[in-house]
Amino acid sequence: MYVITGITGQVGGALANALLKAGKPVRAVVRDEKKGALWAARGCEIALATMTDADALAHAFEGAEAVFILPPPEFDPAPGFPEAREVIDTIVAAVARSKPRSIVCLSTIGAQATQTNLLTQRSLLEEALRKQAIPVAFLRPGWFMENCAWDVDSARNEGIVRSFLQPLDRAIPMIATDDIGELAAKLMQERWSGVRVVELEGPRRTSPDDIAAAFEQVLGQPVRAQAVARDTWEALFVSQGMKHPTPRIQMLDGFNEGWIDFEGEREHIVKGTTPLVEVIRKLVAR
Asked: What SS3 class is residue 184?
C-alpha cells in the first residue's frame, strides 16, 4: 500500500495519478470524507486524519510500503514556526508507531539554508525525520511553475507580470507539479537505506522575463515583467492580510540573493520534462 498525504493538492494529486496509472494500491489521507470522494471513486482506500492527530495518522500509515509526507502549507507562520513544529511532532510520532517501510518527504530547494525564512518549515521537518531509523528520501523541487497562476489576470488584462523575483532576467530553478508527482511516484517504488536527497528542476532555468514571454506566447498579446519594489513588500503583504510577512520576505530575498539554491552539484539534479509554456497554457485555460 502506498499512502499519500496532501492528495487533494497539486503535487499529491499528480503523485496519486502516477501510482494509479502504474496499477499500485493507494491510500489517500484526507481531513474529511467529502474531499476523498473523488479518489475513492478512482479506487483509492480512504483514511481520515489530520496532520495534528498522531493516533489517526499512525493508523493511516499502518502497513504502508511507502508514505508520502506533505504537510499543509503555512504561508503566514507565527514567529518560531509553532504551526509547523506541531505538525512535525505529529508526523514523527505517527511514523514511530506505524513503521512504514520507507518515507518520501516533499521538501524544498534551499532546505539546507541556515538563514531563517518561510522554507525553514521544511528544514525543520527534514531535521526531525533524519533522526528516525526508517529510510527517508527528501524530494527538493525548485520554485513551482504553477505559482504563475497568480499572474494570469494581470498578464491577460494589463499585459504585465508583477514579480518579486529579481532581477527580471535572472533565471532560477523552476518545476511543474506533474513532474514532481512523477518523480515522487518513482521514489516511492524504490528501495534504499538511510537518508537520500533528490533535487529536481525543469528542462531549463526560468526568469521573470521568461514567464512574461511564455504568457505572451499563450495569450497572443504583448506581456512584460515588472519588478515589485523591495521597499513596498512588507506594506503590500500586510495589506493582503498577512500578520507575519517577514519569513516570506526572507524567502524572496534568499532566491534573489542566491542563498536559496540547490545543495548538490548541477549535474546531479534531476530534470523534469514539462516546459513552462505548457503549464501556463493550462493555467490560462482554467
From this structure: helix
Cβ atoms of 117 and 254 within 8 Å: the answer is: yes
Average pLDDT over residues 118-123: 98
Does 73 score more than 90 pLDDT? Answer: no
48 contacts 39 by C-beta, under 8 angstroms: no
Q: DSSP letters along 63-130, please?
A: T-SEEEE-PPP-SSPPTT-HHHHHHHHHHHHHHHHH--S-EEEE--TTTT--S-STTHHHHHHHHHHH
Q: Where are the alpha helices (DSSP H) in the chain?
A: 10-21, 33-41, 54-61, 82-98, 120-130, 152-158, 177-188, 208-219, 233-239, 246-257, 276-285
Residue type, 172: I
Residues, the chain, total? 286
**Which cell is 51 given?**
496532520
User: What Cα–Cα distance (Å) separates residue 101 from each residue in 20, 129, 137, 189, 207?
Assistant: 19, 14, 12, 11, 39
74 pLDDT higher than 90? yes
Under 8 Å between Cβ of 237 and 245: yes
Domains of the chain, CATH where assigned: 2-144+175-201+261-272 (3.40.50.720)
**What whole-number distance in Å separates Cα of residue 246 and Cα of residue 233?**
10
Cα separation, 197 vs 262, in Å, equals 10
When pLDDT is cut at 50, 70 and 90, the band that residue 272 belongs to is very high
pLDDT the model gives residue 27: 98
Record the pTM: 0.96
**What type of residue sits at position 68?**
F
